[in-house]
Amino acid sequence: MVLRRCTLSERPAALAHHFDDLAQQYEAAHLGMWVFLLTEIMFFGGMFTGYAVYRSVYAVAFAEGSHHLDLVLGSINTVVLISSSLTMVLAVHAAQVGQRQLLVGFLLLTMLLGLVFLGLKTVEYTHKFADHLVPGSGFLYAGPHARQVQLFFSFYFVLSFSFHSCLFFFFAVSPICFFLTDLFFSSSVCLYCKGVC
Q: What's the pLDDT tens digit per position in 47-86?
């Protein structure tokens, strides 16, 4: 008896034990995805509304805070995120058409880009800790708008951490995460360059 491995497209759809049929399982997964997307929209909508309100009220302080962001690392991370998005989408496509070698290759490349992203963020966050720009009791800023700059960095770290989590785990199914990351980074670049967006 010769055993052969079946491709991903040849495998029968598996019905989980708590569903009556595949249609019910599909509908539950579909509903779950929409609930996930709606919670992301609510969270990021609230965060961006808060950011927009405080940015307009404390424009000078937010501009001062944005001068402490690393434009080069942010730009490289944007390219890494776009590339990892592409490799993840290509991996999903490879899985759909049953190309196992391409699937594994694209997944490994996506993981490698994720590690590059985390490495760059480690460098960036290390500088923020060394400069005491992390909100909390150790926050030190010598400028005249210290409390408002701390507010800027609060938004920066919460949104940045949320985006990283979102992007790392759900990027292929939630493109809104990349849009929001790009929007925040572009907004900070405009402040950094003293431009008007």
A: 888 888 988 998 888 888 888 888 898 889 889 988 988 9
How many structural domains does the chain have? Answer: 1
Q: Domain range for residue 158?
A: 22-192
Q: 3-class DSSP state for residue 137?
A: coil
Residue 192 exposure: Cα atoms within 13 Å on the Cβ side: 14
In a domain, 81, yes or no: yes
Residue 9 in any domain: the answer is no
90: CATH:
1.20.120
The Cα angle at residue 78 between residues 75 and 80, in degrees rounded to 5: 110
DSSP 8-state class, residue 193:
T
pTM score over 0.70: no
Tell me whether residue 8 is in a domain: no
pLDDT digits 0-9 by tens, 75-114: 898 899 889 889 988 998 998 898 999 999 999 999 999 8
Contact 50, 156 (CB under 8 A): no
Residue 27 in domain: yes
Phi, psi of 171 (to 5 degrees): -60, -40
- Angle, CA of 90, 78 and 119, to the nearest 5°: 95
| Cα–Cα dist 7/96, whole Å | 10
